[in-house]
Write a structure and sequence with these properties.
This is Activator of basal transcription 1. By secondary structure, the chain is of the alpha+beta class. The chain folds into 2 domains: 8-143, RRM (RNA recognition motif) domain (Alpha-Beta Plaits, 2-Layer Sandwich), CATH 3.30.70.330; 161-248. It has 6 helices and 4 strands; from the N terminus they run ααβαβαβαβα. The protein is rod-shaped, with a radius of gyration of 51 Å.
Length: 248
């Protein structure tokens, strides 16, 4: 897909200037650095929020360089876990990419590319693999290539902070869980001890009552025996006296 409003002659002139600039080696001097910074300020970056399935960086470069001179291309590959889950379900084993950035030597062209191609089919020959896929492109004003790495660094720091917070939260939850288990164990032990003490007290009271009953029974038996012995003794004395009187 080509732009209808592009000035072809102007584009060819710019491409020639860029090619000559690339071939010409500037000395590493303050003037050279200043010249590079001046050229670098004209660079523009577009952001691809969605990469067509299995499209490679080489294909990205091939598709975009027809609109203007491009520099670096960077695509973020899918995570290992995502690829593992996809291939496990029988998906394509080719590498897939999730998002990407393309650097143009002219930010005006980068802006036009984003505005013209966003939400449009990639197009191409009838049997082209990516013909029906839709571009999702955004021009990033005042955004330079180094900002990608800075953004990536900030995301890593943010991810690290989130991870540390999650780890800290997990530790707190584990500590609370262990405390609850320990509290439950102590409570269970206390209840068991109370029940044991209660059982022992009841058993002891029962033994005491049994002992008291036994003592009472023994005392009653002894008393009955004494009474019986006394009666027997009285009977014997009475019989003895009768015998003496009878003899006389």
């Amino acid at each position: 897909m080509h732009f209808q409003d592009f000035d072809i002659d102007n584009e060819e002139k710019k491409q020639t200037e860029i090619k000559e600039l690339k071939q010409k080696k500037l000395p590493i001097t303050e003037k050279g650095i200043s010249s590079f910074k001046k050229k670098y300020k004209k660079f523009g970056v577009i952001y691809l929020s969605k990469i067509p399935p299995f499209m490679k960086p080489v294909k990205i470069r091939q598709l975009f360089q027809q609109y203007g001179k491009i520099g670096r291309v960077f695509l973020v590959p899918e995570s290992k876990q995502s690829r593992k889950n996809r291939t496990k379900k029988g998906g394509n084993r080719k590498r897939n990419y999730e998002e990407g950035w393309v650097e143009f030597y002219d930010k005006k062209i980068a802006k036009r590319v984003a505005e013209s191609l966003n939400n449009t089919p990639i197009g191409g020959p009838r049997r082209a693999y990516f013909r029906d896929d839709i571009w999702c492109i955004k021009y990033l004003p005042k955004f330079k290539w180094n900002d990608i790495h800075a953004q990536d660094h900030m995301e890593k720091i943010e991810h690290k902070n989130i991870l540390q917070q999650e780890i800290s939260q997990a530790k707190k939850e584990d500590e609370m869980f262990l405390k609850n288990i320990e509290r439950s164990r102590k409570q269970k032990k206390r209840i068991e001890n109370e029940n044991q003490n209660k059982f022992e007290n009841e058993f002891e009271n029962q033994n005491q009552n049994q002992n008291q009953n036994q003592n009472q029974n023994q005392n009653q038996n002894q008393k009955k025996k004494r009474i019986k012995r006394k009666k027997d003794q009285e009977i014997d004395e009475e019989e003895f006296l009768k015998n003496i009187v009878g003899i006389k």
